[in-house]
Amino acid sequence: MPSPSIPLRIVAAGHPKLRDSLEEARNISNYINQKGLKSSHGSLYDEKIRKRVHAGDFDILIAVGGDGTMLRAGHLCAPHDIPILGINKGRLGFLFQVVETGWEPLIDNLLAGNFWIEKRMMLRADHLRSGERLGSWQALNDVVVSRGQFLRPIHIKTDIDEQYLTTYVADGLIASTATGSTAYALACGGPILPPELRNILLIPIAPHLSVDRAVILSEGSTVNITVQSENAVLSVDGQIPIGLADDDQVIVHAGEDTTKFIRFGDPGYFYRNLTPHMNQNATIPNSH
Q1: Same domain, yes or no, for 75 and 143?
Q2: Pairwise CA distance, residues 81 & 76, whole Å
Q3: How many CB atoms are closer than 10 A to CB 209?
Q4: Does 1 fall in a domain?
Q5: Do 61 and 168 have their domain in common?
Q6: What phi and psi values does residue 131 have, to the nearest 5 degrees?
Q7: Is residue 288 part of a domain?
Q8: 172 FRET partner, CA 20 to 30 A, in 53, 155, 212, 271?
Q9: Whole-angstrom Cα distance, residue 147 to residue 153?
Q10: Is the domain of 98 the same as that of 137?
């Protein structure tokens, strides 16, 4: 594994709605400045910060917040090939490398070049109506077509590489990356995929008398999701749902960008992180 270059231009960005997140970003930036490097800080939603990212002013972005902050940072940084170091101020933190020593040792290792880059595949989702593309998005976690405000299930015709797969009668269908396999897909009973895998995971949400098994596709596959119901919505990485009409299509395939996360130590961190997450259900007694 080639050694990454030591970052010289760093920005620490916090989530404006998370308590202490912006203050922590400022503290991290000050710490880096004290080491003799130039660092900026601010809100991940600050348009000035975002413009500087687009302009290529930074080598690394330090995201301070929760998993939602990391998703937003991924959307911002992936098109510009900027790696992200996550400092967890949220609750779950599946996208973080959990450490107990605080952020100072992480920053010291970062500035010494003692880190490696983990690459995460993204998805591209296109919304089509009568052949016209109405929108296009990239997703780090998942693309979800689901029922709207009414309780009845929807019909979702699904084709893989122009070959008919099935028509789900369900509350929805998730197209997920390996990263997203520990998000909504996991809650729906899907498998956990190692984060470096470049696969597309399909899993139905509460299927009714239809296929209830997850399907794992190769990176080169294209999924054509056709809504055959009036009551359906599209959500990308948990963002505000977009209304879908009958016969609308959502085309999903591997995205052109890759999200890069900064990691320390050996790659086995992912499996070590799983155990505390799996044991967070208070109704399950701890066997240790």
Answers
A1: no
A2: 10
A3: 8
A4: no
A5: no
A6: 85, -10
A7: no
A8: 271
A9: 6
A10: no
67 is known as an active-site residue? yes
Who contacts 91 (Cβ-Cβ below 8 Å, separation ≥6)? 66
Nearest Cα neighbor of 98 from 226, 270, 224 is 270
Domain extent, residue 210, equals: 122-256
Same domain, 20 and 106: yes
pTM of the entire structure?
A: 0.90
The active-site residue, picked from 20, 59, 67, 161, is 67
Tell whether 287 is covered by a domain: no
Q: Which long-range contacts (CB under 8 A, 24 or more apart) does 211-218 make?
A: 211/166, 211/168, 214/185, 214/189, 214/190, 215/160, 215/165, 216/191, 217/160
Tally the domains of the chain: 2
Dist CA 197 CA 223 (whole Å)? 18
Per-residue pLDDT of the chain (288 residues), as tens digits, is 445 677 789 999 999 888 789 999 999 999 999 999 989 999 999 999 999 999 999 999 999 999 999 999 999 999 999 999 999 987 767 888 877 678 999 999 999 999 999 999 999 999 999 999 999 999 999 999 999 888 899 999 999 999 999 999 999 999 999 999 999 999 999 999 999 999 999 999 999 988 899 999 999 999 999 999 989 999 999 999 999 999 999 999 999 999 999 999 887 888 877 776 666 654 444 433
Residue 284 lies in a domain: no
CATH code (residue 47): 3.40.50.10330
